Amino acid sequence: MSNYKELTDIEILENIVKYDSKALEELYLRYSPILFSLIKKIVPDTRSAEKILLDVFIIVWRKIDLFNFKSGNVYVWLIFLARNKAVEFVRNKGEISKDDKYEDFFVIPLLEDSIDSLSLKSAIKAKPEISEALDNLTEAQKYVILLSFYEGLTLDQIAEKLNIPIPTVRSKITVALDKLKENLLGK
């Protein structure tokens, strides 16, 4: 394969399955900027964020067989993989887990076939609409999403932090996500 830039994300992953290091390099070139940006929001230390980013691509190389090719959702899989790895780093107080079973179960995302596919190009194109939808949330709604997604806090931890019952936390997150969805759909 001579021109990797012309391959789709799925074709790149299909080549990674065959241990094609040039395909991994192309995936890194495509996704490292956006993944690094996400990781830095969760782990502000640049050196740690760089280690996590590298670890994300090591996971892709070693465990590409855990990607659901039926979903075809490379962008979402990589975003959640990077997010989960960064949250794991924060939860483990700066340590990157080397436990394969833990990683398989808690770090590598399991995407259902029914999830809408989103490409890097369409995500970048939708960024203004997503930013506007987030801006239209209340501060409280933004905060519970931040605690859940970026800080990776569990419902128990959010309840403790906000000093409210777990069902209230669950309700607040559900309302925030519903409002975000409503804002994105323009209702």
Question: How are the SSEs ordered, and which strands pair?
Answer:
Layout: H1 9-17, H2 21-42, H3 46-62, H4 74-91, H5 100-107, H6 120-135, H7 139-150, H8 155-162, H9 166-185
Helix pairs in contact: 1-2, 2-3, 2-4, 3-4, 6-9, 7-9, 8-9
Structure write-up:
With 187 residues, the chain is mainly α. The protein folds into 2 domains: 4-107, Rna Polymerase Sigma Factor, Chain: A (Orthogonal Bundle); 126-185, Orthogonal Bundle (Arc Repressor Mutant, subunit A), CATH 1.10.10. It has helices at residues 9-17, 21-42, 46-62, 74-91, 100-107, 120-135, 139-150, 155-162, 166-185. The chain is globular. The termini are far apart. The model has no long low-confidence stretch (mean pLDDT 88).
Brief characterization of the structure:
This protein has 187 residues and is mainly α.
Computed structural class? mainly alpha
What is the CATH C level class of the largest domain, in words?
Answer: Mainly Alpha
What would the principal axes of the Cα set say about the shape?
Answer: globular
Which CATH architecture of the largest domain? Orthogonal Bundle
CATH-assigned fold name of the largest domain: Rna Polymerase Sigma Factor, Chain: A
The profile of the biggest β sheet is: none
Topology as H/E string? HHHHHHHHH
Task: Identify the CATH homologous superfamily of the largest domain.
Answer: RNA polymerase sigma factor, region 2, helix turn helix motif
Number of helices: 9
Unreliable segments of 5+ consecutive residues: none
Mean pLDDT: 88
Distance between the termini: 46 Å
Task: Indicate the percent of residues in helices.
Answer: 55-70%
Our Rg estimate from Cα atoms comes to 17 Å
Count of distinct structural domains:
2
What's the total number of strands? Answer: 0
**Beta-strand content:** under 5%
